[in-house]
Structures are given as structure tokens and as C-alpha cells.
Queue: 2 jobs
Job 1
Amino acid sequence: MNLKKSAVNKKAGAKVKRSISNTPSSFILHPSSLVAVVMGSKSDWDTMRSASDALEEFGVAHESHVMSAHRTPKLASDFAANAESRGIEVIIAAAGGAAHLAGVLAAHTTLPVLGVPMKSEALNGLDSLLSTVQMPAGIPVGTLAIGKAGATNAALFAVAILANSRPELRKKLRQFRRQQEAKVRAAKLD
Ligand code: RP5
């Protein structure tokens, strides 16, 4: 991605924030984030960095946190319950194995929650995929592909949601699609 950068934030012209933290108090420090990237473990960051990078490319203010549905259940539920009042519009949640982070966050908010299944050691991410995608009716989690492709697409999906009410973001999304197409059309095989 190689987009012309300009901040997409609640306050026009405000500096785009990219915040990375795993401390419980961190989320009160970033009042302008539109997207929260949440992951169950620091070990997920290598994958989820792709989501943060893509949001950065689009100039979307966001924050990244480690919190777990089973290791820090109160932190996770409090975070989700407070996200909307903090101005967050989309939550991206990544977890591996049978961890249910995305579903738990979705249970505590009506904001759109996009789940990214992490590639696990035991089952290559099939466990993560099923535990994220198979939400019973009533509490939806929009589930993306396993691993880095899913992380990037979750960010692009978040951008598409935000673009519904932000014409400048829609313009960038169209520009990105055009660049993608141009690259494929220009591809030359040795
Ligand atoms: C999940 O367990 C995390 O999302 C991670 O993908 C997986 C393994 O976590 P660690 O044991 O590496 O901390 O909760």
C-alpha cells in the first residue's frame, strides 16, 4: 500500500495516532482512536502488526492492546463496554486456539467486531477460525482469514465501514483498489 497520507480522525487536522500498549490504563490515553486492534497475547502482534500498518497507511487513528478473554476477562469486558463511549467505531479482535476474544468483546458492545483467527501451533489456526467464526445467532463477529491476510483485510474492512460516513476515506479506498489493479496488470513473469 502506498497511499497519500492525511489524517482521518474525529477532529479534522488532528494528528493521526498509532498507539500500542498492553497496560490496562492505556485506553484512556488515546481519546481520538476510531479503531481498536485487540489481541489475546503479545505473541499475536507479529501477525496483527499488519492490521495496524494498514490502518496507518489509510491515516486512521487507532490503538493496539493485548488483552485476553480468559487471562484478563475483566479487562476485556470493561474495554468492550467502554469502547463506544470513547469514540471507537470498530474493534478488531485477534485470538488463537480456542480463545473466544472476539465473541466476548462482541458480547459487551454493539460496535462491529471483526475477528482475526491466529495461526495456532496445534491445528494451524483451524481451531482459532472455528472458535471465531461459529458464533451462535444473536452476537455477530465478522470473521476474516487466518493470519496476516486476515489482519490486513480486517483493517481494510474497518476502513470500508468508516468510509460510509467519510468521503475522504472512500476516496483513499478507491485509490488503493486502483493501485492494486495496476500492479496486477503490470505483472511480468520471468
Ligand atoms: C490466545 O492464545 C492468544 O490469542 C494466542 O494466539 C494464543 C497463545 O498465546 P500465548 O501462549 O502465546 O500467550 O489467547
Job 2
Amino acid sequence: MIGAAAPALPGLMMDRSLQISRLIDHAALWHGEVEIVTQRTGLPDRRSNYRELRARSAQLAHALAGRLHVRPGDRVATFAWNTQRHLELYYGVSGMGAVLHTINPRLFAPQVAYIVNHAGDRFVFVDADLVPVLEPLAAQFPGVEGYVVLCEEAEMPATTLPNAIAYETLIGGFPGEIEWPELDETTASSLCYTSGTTGNPKGVLYSHRSTLLHTFAQAASWQAGPGSQATILPVVPLFHANAWGLPYLAPMQGSKLVFADPHLDPAALYDAFEREQVTLSCGVPTIWLRLLEYLERNDLRFSSLRLLGVGGTAPPRSLIEAFEVKYGVCVMNAWGMTETSPACTFGTPKPQHDVLPQRIDYKTHAGRCLFGVEMRIVDDAGASLPFDGVAQGEIHVRGPWIASGYFEDAEATERGVTDDGWLRTGDIATIDADGYVAIRDRAKDVIKSGGEWISSIDLENIAVAHPDLAEAAAIGVPHPTWSERPVLFVVAKAGRHVDEPAIIAFLQGRVAKWSIPDRVIVVQELPHTATGKVSKRTLREGYTPAP
Ligand code: ADP
């Protein structure tokens, strides 16, 4: 019988662990002069390089251990935008064996409070401009021992955050040399919570091994010709699913890194692309639509950009076509989730499909599976469906960079992972015989606007707290800039009257600003399914946009 229980002959290759610190060692040694540029509107650019990045990550690792007494496995949080200091945390924290927990500063306060406590963060590293966001929450963080503000001593803001210290003061005086500890490659390296389903946010705990394998897979799969990865500007934030792997990919390849101002004003972004001669950038479609509009209005062209990675939501065809045909930039639509590190598919057509005009059609698909990810689509009963481009089912994935469960959340793990070890993605798709994945719908009851999640269930629950409302149902409707925006259908209680302005006013201050629905539609009743649930599909299908 094939696959006997006894081990076959062991190979004779070295068992060097795949660990994140090797990336920064490699980059400092072989690409030491390659730059890392941090831009802030109104301030001079901060220019550094991989040699300095490694030295400062080393100083940080020494300070974490020697001054803050951080131990391997401890969680160290960041609440910060894209900067070189944030990247130093990527390497210093994971490199010493602790866990880098990146928090999305745009989340609504109760979610941040839940996440910090659930993760058991011991320290939070925070950008100076985000200090006022954390201050009112700090009393709810009994486990947090102190805060490190990502600035110089002289820039330290007056703050009520307990035990606050400037980053440069923390790391100053520690040596820039280090021999990183040898870690088991399955050691946890970073943690990121996803609010991409209903209920509490869920923690995805990456390992050194998963991170490196994901980086190798990415490096092997970008296809836009030589030099396309020379200079990378990750528009995607460092707090979104490891910035889609770019902070690891860049040092692996020796790519220059550019961190743009977080406001992502199209003029400033275009200027960053041109000034730094960016060749590759990645982000959600909203950003690229705004940039496109700016280019068209000002009749501009790119002089260096060659490859644009798009993901997080489906990019419109018009976006792909404009970049590919008019601007000569290769667009790659990639699909994945926080749970999947995140890359699962890349939108590189097979050679026979990579010619105009059909290339654009193929690129509107969410791509094809990367080697290392296994994928299936299943029906409601869990049976696998054929890859015929017609049968539509939920995507299940498995592989070495796919979450096997959620951090300290047995219930979410039980719901999210099948008995036979596949991750349920909540995305409904077809896959054709060539492997092109087309995302058709989302089974999870959430709306994605400009790359940020809105829980329709939270929105409904908060809305029905209005004294005149009987029922509410939120759906996501396509939007040209934001990909999706929420629309809320409401039913008044018998004998009561409600209108749109009253509901909007009620929601203001109760939900995050971007969750306020674009429209509130008062209806007599909501459509229900046979099992008595509100039929969102019927609502979506029957929805006509406002004139
Ligand atoms: P990320 O931070 O990478 O966007 P999330 O976990 O927040 O990850 O979101 C993952 C979800 O976003 C997917 O399950 C899917 O619904 C949606 N998504 C991601 N990429 C695409 C894509 N290329 N096309 C359509 N939907 C996408």
C-alpha cells in the first residue's frame, strides 16, 4: 500500500528554520543601501535603508527585552500608519520571538477595546496623531502596561496615556547589533483581527513559517516583467493583513520601499509615484479609482509604474481597462483574506488569454490559485462542485499560510473550519476549467466599503433600538468609488412613523462614520425566506439605485 505508516528515507538537507529575522538579515547584508522612504505631507521625507532598518529593529528588540521585559510569545500592539518605525516593529517584535499585533486605528472604539483585551496586549506602540484616539479607551485596558509613542522625545505630546514614553527614547542607547534567537518556525509571529464576519472580531495568528512561505509564493507569482518590483509603495496599510505581504516581500527581493502619507490624497500619491519612481503598488480599488480620476482630469501619465495589485473587493472592469490599455500598467486582481495571509489567487492570465481584448475579461476574475493553496467550492450540503465556470458554491481553502483556527476563540474556529480541515471563506464563487475564480456573492453578512468592513447585523441591531422601528435589514449595494455602500431597509412599528433623516440622525454617533447608510428606505414589510430569515438576496435583486 502507498503511504505506509513507517517513515521513508529521511532527506539529508539542513533543517534551518524559516524565520522572519532572516529576511532583514538578508536585506541588510545584500541590499543594505536600498532605501526606505517615509513621506508626510508638509514634512521632509525620512530616508533610510535596509542596513539602518536592521540596526534599529535590533535596538528595538534589545529595548523590548531589556527595558520592557517583553518575553517570547507576548503580544505587542501597534496602532499606527505606514512608516519606517512601524516596519521596525515588524522585524524587532517578531524577530525577538514576541508577537506583533497590528490594530486598525479606523475601527470603532468598542472593537478596539475588545481586540486589545482579547489579544492580551502588554504594550501599545502608537503614532503621535493617534494618541487622542487611544486616550479615552485606555481605562478599559487593564492589561496594557504602557504606551510607546512613535516619535522623538522632543515631539512627545502631552498625554493622559499611562506610562507613555517616546519611541526614540525607548530604543536609544541599545546596540544596533544582534544575533536573532533561533526560533521554531511554527512560532507565532504576528496577530491581526478581522471584522470581516459578524460577531466579535477574530484573531488570526500567523507563524514565521506561514509568513515566509507566503512571501516565497508571492515572489514566484508576480509577473509583470523585469524590474517591476524595483520600488514598492504599499498603499495597503501595515495593519491590514500584513500589508498583503509586501513588508516581507520587499526585503526578500531587495526592493526599495516607499510609505506615502496616510491621507492618500491622489495628487500626493501621484507625486510619490513619480518622485520615487515607484514600479509596484497595491491597494483597494477605491484608491485607484480616485487616482484614475485625478490622472484623467490633469492629463497625466506614469513614468515608472508597471504593476498594480488590486484586492480587498472586486475592481470594476473600467478600472482594469483604463490602467491596462490607456496607462500601460499591468493590473493584478488578487483575492484573499486576513485568514489567508492574505494571498490565495493572483490574476495573471494564462499566456493564451493574455492578449487584448480578452485579457481584460480574464483580469476581472479574481485570479487563479497560487501554488501552495488548495481550493474547492462546495454547495450548502458541503458537497464539492465541479470547476466548470457555472456551478456556484462557497470557497474553501487550505494550505500552509491559511489559518487553522482563530486565536483563543474555539467557537469561531468551530464555525470557520470544517471537520476535514478546510477554512470556510464565506465567499461564493465559480471556478472554470482553467482555474479562473469569479467571486459572485458573499455568504457572510457584511458590507465592504473602501476596504473597511461594515457589519450589517450590527447596523440592523443598532437601528432597531430606535423606538419607532420594528425591523431593519442592511445590504451592500455597488458604488463607483467605495465598491460597496450600505443601504438600510426599515419597517416602522404599527401606528408609528419613521423617515430617513430620523434614522440617520439616530445612527450618528452610534456607529462608525463610514457605516452610516447612504440611503434608508422605509418599506411596509421585508421579504423573508422559507426559513423565516430576511432574504437579503431579494432585497439586493430588487434594489434600484436612487436617481
Ligand atoms: P483584506 O484585508 O486582505 O482585504 P479581509 O479579511 O478584510 O482581508 O477581507 C477579505 C474579503 O474581502 C474576502 O473574503 C472577500 O469577500 C473580499 N475580497 C478580497 N479580495 C477580493 C477580490 N479580489 N475580489 C472580490 N472580493 C475580494
